[in-house]
Design brief:
135 residues, 3 helices, mainly alpha
């Protein structure tokens, strides 16, 4: 399918270059509009022949097979992408947990260092107001 389309585009491109040269070197200006009309019709015919053979000829079955193969390939790639996303999520979660553990360990080590240096244990106590029941 792609090969036929690529060949058609190449053929039309070469034809357009040659046709433009022909129009440029026309014998008289009066022939320009007729040459342009003729070239336009010929380009349209060159473009529609492969498309018509695809839809009207045996190209339907080939196109259907290629579409099915493309669908299967797309499904496989989507499944691989989903598996990769799950693995990436697991790795990210593991890395996050390791980072949290490392930071907690660093924080506890930093808190223990001043205690060991002074020999005293500091405790911060917040005042609590008494609770009265029944009032």
């Amino acid at each position: 399918m792609r090969n036929i389309l690529f060949q058609t585009i190449c053929r039309v491109g070469i034809f357009m270059i040659c046709a433009q040269a022909l129009v440029h070197f026309r014998p008289r200006e009066a022939y320009e509009k007729y040459l342009k009309l003729l070239v336009s019709v010929m380009i349209l015919i060159q473009l529609f022949l492969p498309i018509g053979s695809l839809f009207l000829g045996g190209g339907r079955q080939d196109a259907a097979r290629q579409l099915e193969a493309f669908g299967r390939e797309l499904e496989q790639e989507m499944q691989k992408a989903q598996e990769s996303a799950f693995q990436t999520d697991g790795l990210l979660e593991q890395m996050t947990l390791e980072e949290v553990r490392r930071r907690i360990e660093e924080q506890t080590q930093q808190e223990e260092l001043p205690r060991e240096a002074s020999g005293e244990i500091r405790t911060d106590v917040e005042p609590v107001e008494p609770v009265k029941i029944g009032e």
